Amino acid sequence: MTQFDPAALLVTRSQSADEGPIIRMAQRARELRAKGMDVVSLTVGEPDFDTPENIQAAATAAMKAGFTHYSPVMGIPELRSALSRKLKAENGLDFGANEICVANGAKQAIANAILSIIGPGDEVVMLAPFWVSYEILVRFAGGTPVVLHAGVEEDYKVPAARIAAAVTPSTKLVILNSPSNPTGAVWSREELEALASVVKGHPHLMVLSDEIYEYIIFGGEMVSIGSLPGMRERTITVNGFSKGFAMTGWRLGYAAAAEPLARAMGRIQSAVSAGANQFVQRAAIAALEGPRDEVERMRLRYQARRDMVLEGLRAIPGVRIGEIPATFYAFPDVSALLGRKAGNHLLDTADTLCDWLLEEHGVATVPGTAFGAPGSIRLSFACSEAEIEKAMTRMRKALENLT
Asked: Which helix (H) or strand (E) holds 268?
């Protein structure tokens, strides 16, 4: 009998679809905990708060009312209308319900967008540090990532002039994430206007603007680039309910774009999945139109945690960290520590450093290689203040003794 190896059937696409370091570090932290080790995990970007009660109640009521069946692929009309009102009132974006595609999470909305407009030979400008899934999805679509880097000295924001210099006739998309995962950076109105000027100078160039962290800002102004003059038709705005409303497991996101693009995203979604869960969509209406007290309470808690993390990281010699104006992530530059030793153990990369912090000191972080910035590490402070305090104490004790 001929020997059969299922692994031989795998194509490159399946092997490149890997959020590697994030999943690896989170899984390793769980394994060590299962063995009895006291581990503080700062890996996954998931709010530690429960979904607000009014949203849970709306989902329960929707189920009892029989909203447990298939929904339209692009979303129920009531939610799309509510999103249209939200985008206009909060973001200055004038999109009709027919220009909004509801998805099974913001990640699917991003995938729908990229798969709709990017194909082989198309270039996509990616602003590093970036969320790892952007690069995976661009490669999925056959596109070519063009990675531009900005470090802590530039507040992790690539200047418009460098973006302009990278644009070629093959460039079709710039991916913008403001507020940013992993850095917490927020682009100012002036910075967005400069980027918009670059985009409008090219006939086939668009922006995908991921605004999932818009409700977790600690200072400054949230500006949607699609609201700027001339950018409505050139912007796909993606958002969702996971972060600001603590609805990660509910899996609901959306994209707003000119109608031909919205319809194309709906076709992509129809081919690979279906419409999002109907009772979750009805709960999302309650989230949008109900009180925001819990959203604000969570934001204030994140802000207090941000202050703790900044104080802790700035006390560690060799660690560089700028301001964190938004999100629940810190992205310290640890490049000055790389190449040092812990005993006989050489910490020559951020990956090695993160492994050592976890294995020897019980603090799980994520190496910056996952985000296009190998000299940094990411910490999620979507965890309790007690855990943050423990992590900062352990990290300082560990890192200040490197030789």
From this structure: helix 259-272
